[in-house]
Amino acid sequence: MMRKAFTLMEVNLAILIMAGGVLSVCGLFSLGYRENRQSREDVAASSYADAVISPLVMAIGATNIKWSVFKTMPSYPSDRGWSDYFNSQGIVTSDPESQAKSVFDAVMGKMSSAAKGPLNVNTTFPSAAAANMRAGLVVQHDEDSAIVKICFRATKLPSELLAMPIFYTEVRFQGLANE
To answer: CA nearest 52: which of 71, 76, 68?
Structure first.
């Protein structure tokens, strides 16, 4: 009487197929870990952008700012925009966080001094929202334009600032006509 059983060849083939499946799953762990880390950084950058952009929008869009002041608001850090953060090779030339803070302070100072009455907005740079991130901030305004453009980027590594997505918004003049 002959017994039914698996041959050594069939067992080896089954082990080979199982090993391939296990190795494929192991390869997915590193991909999942990387995507999870990137997702956490994206959420942190998004909340940091909200903490920086929201007070700027409230200050620039304040209804107690005169048009004569608004129309002469310069671009920050300069008319060159993001180029102020990078050298010709695309490498960050200075601490982007301090430059972003100076842009924020300059805009808030301009709007606070121009406002007819209190701004009712937090005028200090929200460093607590940073979560160990480095930021870049550009505020662009063409003279006599009723729109101010605000661009923000954040990253854990300053050298990657140019590669990060831009958080962008526009603020339209809503203030007082000249008296």
So the answer is: 76
pTM for the predicted model, two decimal places = 0.79
Of 63, 23, 61, 68, nearest in space to 139 by CA:
61
Q: Nearest to residue 60, comparing CAs of 124, 133, 126, 109?
A: 109
Those residues with Cβ within 8 angstroms of residue 26's Cβ, 6 or more apart along the chain or in another chain:
none
Per-domain residue ranges of the chain: 9-172
What is the Cα–Cα distance from 73 to 141, expressed in whole angstroms? 7
Q: Mean pLDDT per segment of 10 residues, for the chain of length 179 residues?
A: 79 91 86 88 90 92 84 87 80 81 90 79 81 89 89 87 90 79
Closest of 130, 122, 111, 121 to residue 175, by C-alpha: 111
For residue 22, the number of C-alpha atoms closer than 13 Å in the C-beta half-sphere is 6
The span from the CA of 171 to the CA of 149, in Å, is 6
